[in-house]
Specification:
74% helix, mainly alpha, 2 domains
Length: 368
Amino acid sequence: MADGRDKIKSFMKKKDIEISLKRYGIDALGAMAQGLFCSLLIGTIINTIGTQFNIGFLTASVATIGGAEYTVGGLASAMSGPAMAVAIGYALKCPPLVLFSLVTVGFASNALGGAGGPLAVLFIAIIASEIGKAVSKETKIDILVTPLVTIGVGIGLSAWWAPALGRAASQVGKLIMWATELQPFLMGILVSVIVGVALTLPISSAAICAALSLTGLAGGAAVAGCSAQMIGFAVMSFKENKWGGLISQGIGTSMLQMGNIVKNPRIWIAPIITSAITGPLATCVFKLQMNGTPVSSGMGTCGFVGQIGVYTGWVNDVASGVKSAITAMDWTGLVLISFVLPALLCPLINMCLRKAGWVKDGDMKLGQ
């Protein structure tokens, strides 16, 4: 029995198959968000730029597939399933034949998963990747066996699981959005804090929001929480990290502070309290809704994607007649929630923590 277990462990080590929370919950999930960014999100941004600036070649149809017309941005967005799956395979260190086969797996799982497609892609691409890795280079006809097994497993699981996973994720997202509409103050705090914390942790808040199709008021609260973390850390650590730190955290990621948080968790108090303040302000006062692509809800100020997502939602709502116009109050709320309030509140709260001796100079220095 022991010999059997040792052989399995040795085989998995040889194939680099590591069943762990880090590998699947951090590496794969984070990579999936990058795949989403390079397809769906970039496609949305391209479409928005083309529409707002009347750029003909960005708004014109460049391809017709199955009767559906696609713009440049539309083609990028349509590839979100394959992009996510390949990104996951890359994070799991798949050999080439497995990695390339995941294009089909991602397309199938995302298409069959519907609104909750990203969650289906995450689960199915992980399983297909690991099984593909297990059979890779085990036969003399590897070029046939590995793609057949990877694609076969992926499409089989997509047909079996993807619709249910998609519906489950969609229902959870709808429940969160319904609860936020019903209790905007309490849910504004919870969504803002939880998604903001997820942004700073080495997991992907963007992928979580995409998997749950989180938009509307809940999406606005998520944008508030993520912005509070990023702008908050960027401004309150300016003394230690100067302009480089301001840019890398403010429009990059607050995840850079994770090492410092491990050393002194109290530096995290100010951004978390700030997100608990800006979240309900977003939902109750400014009625800030994120009706762009769900992945934007979990991006905060990273490349200003969260704000672009909010703006895209406004544009879509105006075009569909849901919203009459983009108002000064809309812009005021977006700027205050995303930038001004985090930049003011975080340093003030952190000042109190410094006076209490909980936070000291150098605690937020990057690259220590």
